Amino acid sequence: MDTTQASGIDLPPAPAYSLWQLVHYFLRLGTLGFGGPVALAGYMHRDLVEDRGWITEADYKEGLALAQLAPGPMAAQLAIYLGYVHYRILGATLIAFAFVIPSFLMVLALGWAYVRYGGISWMQAVFYGVGASVIGIIAMSAYKLTTKSIGKDRVLWAIYLTFVVLTAITETEYATLFLLAGVIYWFWKAPPKGLRNSGTLAAFLPEQFPLIASLSSTIDLSLLTAIAIFFAKAGAFVFGSGLAIVPFLYGGLVNELQWLTEKQFVDAVAVAMITPGPVVITVGFIGYLIAGLSGASVAALATFLPCYLFTIIPAPYFKKYGKLPGLIAFVDGVTAAAIGAITGAVIVLGKRSLIDIPTTLIALTTLLLLWRFKKLQEPVIIAGAAIIGLMLFPLLNK
User: Over 90: is that where the pLDDT of 287 sits?
Assistant: First the structure.
């Protein structure tokens, strides 16, 4: 007799990989994965779904949908969910650490150098080349996700294109619209038989979250506690990709709390772009500038803990009900919206990084190299772009 069935426990199929293989993969991705959340999501799909076959397309779509619906950094949430797929909470926890720790140590080292030597002047030169190259990388990732996930469905294409335009124009993402996209496609593809509980979903919408978060701002607390509360709000109440957190951080750190100067904040954003792993890990650099090693550790933990909880708590329900036609349609709609937002983000970031002819040529060259050489590793391209930036930037800014 099957003991799994007898016990009533719904265990996942035996994976084709070990937990330590997955941990090793995410350690490597956290160490060498440049390009921000869009590129990182693309790498995960390419490596784990297409190349290795460790994760199914359905599980990846569920993870991407959950990452877009929940607040916090998208790439980290997707990684945590993929760790949960076959190895549940242990897998999600180990993957969270494996993905974040390498880039955290890097920004910690940069923070130490920044404080010790009074700024990092070479960052502008490196970012000049790397920022342009990253646009090519994320454009290729967006193209692959689009062609793989949208297919020929006209409604999905309509949702996708709407979010491309919306993101490109507004330069932000709205979680309620992702929900709406899912509901629209759900009603189109597999309409529910009864709508008696249609108001239930609205109860979970996040409009009121910032009001709750603001209550803590009036309490007089020690510096580390204040850091923990501020960055927990950033992790718990900011939706979208890692870059979506930047306006929230600027308003709090520079204008309200005045923990950083304008120059320090700009340098912190540069650190986010020139280091691998999740963009949000720049909070470690910021925390170090505010309160040293303790500040860095508290800022990073406070930022990533909410996204970890927002992933593992709803994950069992995604897995349990993931095969229902209505939920499949809902996830497909949210996925189309998410990929549209990712593609729109390429346009937004491109306007900021492609500032002249050389940067445009770097981005186009990156795109052509990735198109022509399928096995070419992104870190090699990033290294080359950094060298080009170091050579060109001083000549163009004399």
Answer: yes
DSSP reduced 3-state for 51: helix
> On the CB side of 51, how many CA atoms lie within 13 Å of its CA?
10
- Say if CB 77 and CB 338 are below 8 A apart: no
pTM: 0.68
The residues, any chain, with a CB within 8 Å of residue 110's CB and separated by 6 or more, are 120, 271, 275, 285
Q: Assess if residue 98 is contained within a domain.
A: yes
- Going by C-alpha positions, the residue among 342, 340, 360, 341 that lies closest to residue 350 is 360
Instruction: Give the residue with greater pLDDT, 322 vs 341.
Output: 341
| Tokens matching residue 334 | 């949210």
Domain presence at residue 57: yes
Give me the residue label for tokens 């009036």: 218
Between CA 317 and CA 325 the distance in angstroms is 15
Q: Is residue 196 part of a domain?
A: no
Q: What sign for the dihedral angle of Cα 158, 161, 163, 166?
A: negative
Look at residue 7 and tell me if it is in a domain.
no
DSSP 206: G
Helix spans in the chain (H): 3-7, 19-32, 36-44, 57-69, 74-117, 122-149, 154-170, 175-189, 209-214, 223-237, 245-250, 262-274, 282-312, 315-320, 325-353, 357-372, 378-396
Farthest-apart Cα atoms in the chain, separation: 78
The pLDDT assigned to 215 comes to 36
Number of domains in the chain: 1
Owning domain of residue 248: 14-191+208-396
CA atoms within 13 A of residue 119's CA, in its CB half-sphere: 11
Helix (H, G, I), strand (E, B) or coil at 327: helix
Phi, psi angle pair for 278, to nearest 5°: -65, 135
